[in-house]
């Protein structure tokens, strides 16, 4: 049986009269790639924002690794191993791919002050940064500036930056947005490979149903702040309720 990493209990959030999270009870288990889908306004990003600490719920509780984290600040969650990416690529564009990874590696190692002095002696940080670049398939581009990388490779670099924090659970918000088919395949293969390593569990918010059905072990469907379906790819494909409110012909064979 898989270990529960994160759990929500009766999580609620409203913006004015609009209820975007309606007493949500969810668990996320180690090693299970989960996609969160739903129409615009379903509450997907709000849920991820609450779980990562960007916004606070109105009520309810969040537990990570068995610890109450409902009001915990973002940096404390990251230190525990709960991280996220955003819809917009968030890298240091003028730094090399290597430096983009080494900065968070040094922070995790408690050596952030070393950023202001020569880093030749930082063997451990250098080796870990190179290992992460290798894991995301960017070791060949380690000395390239981030701004010179393709959109898909910038996304991979962003995942690498998140991996530098050694996350146990990593939320990816639309990781394939704006990508061409080749870039999309590269990202999907990378996420599958990283998941298979067993170090990080991925939860993905995604609109592209080809991505969702090719990648996910589990799919959670939100609609107006409610969970209307939660199951395997096959169960979601066969759900008449999901077809009615969201997928329609997208799940037809």
What do you see in this structure?
With about 250 residues, the protein is α/β, with parallel strands linked by helices. It has one domain (about 5-250): P-loop containing nucleotide triphosphate hydrolases (Rossmann fold, 3-Layer(aba) Sandwich). It is about 35% helix and about 25% strand. The chain contains nine helices and ten strands. The protein is globular and about 50 Å long.
Q: Keyphrases for this structure?
A:
36% helix; 253 residues; 6-stranded mixed β-sheet; alpha/beta; 4-stranded antiparallel β-sheet; 24% strand; 9 helices; Rossmann fold; globular
Strand order of the largest sheet: 6-7-8-3-9-10
Q: Supply Rg.
A: 19 Å
CATH architectural arrangement: 3-Layer(aba) Sandwich
Number of strands: 10
For CATH, the homologous superfamily is named as: P-loop containing nucleotide triphosphate hydrolases
What is the CATH domain class?
Alpha Beta
Helix content: 25-40%
Low-confidence stretches: none
Integer count of domains: 1
Order of SSEs: EEEHEEHEHHHEHEHEEHH
Number of helices: 9
Which range does the strand content fall in? 15-25%
The gross shape turns out to be: globular
- Derived from helix and strand composition plus strand pairing, the structural class reads alpha/beta
Quick structural gist:
With 253 residues, the chain is α/β, with parallel strands linked by helices. The chain has nine helices and ten strands. A hairpin with a 2-residue loop joins strand 4 (59-64) and strand 5 (67-68).
SSE inventory with pairings:
Blueprint: E1 4-15, E2 18-29, E3 34-37, H1 44-52, E4 59-64, E5 67-68, H2 74-80, E6 82-84, H3 97-108, H4 123-135, H5 151-163, E7 169-173, H6 181-197, E8 201-205, H7 209-215, E9 218-223, E10 226-231, H8 233-238, H9 240-247
Parallel strand pairs: 3-8, 3-9, 6-7, 7-8
Antiparallel strand pairs: 1-2, 1-4, 4-5, 9-10
Helix pairs in contact: 3-4, 3-5, 5-6
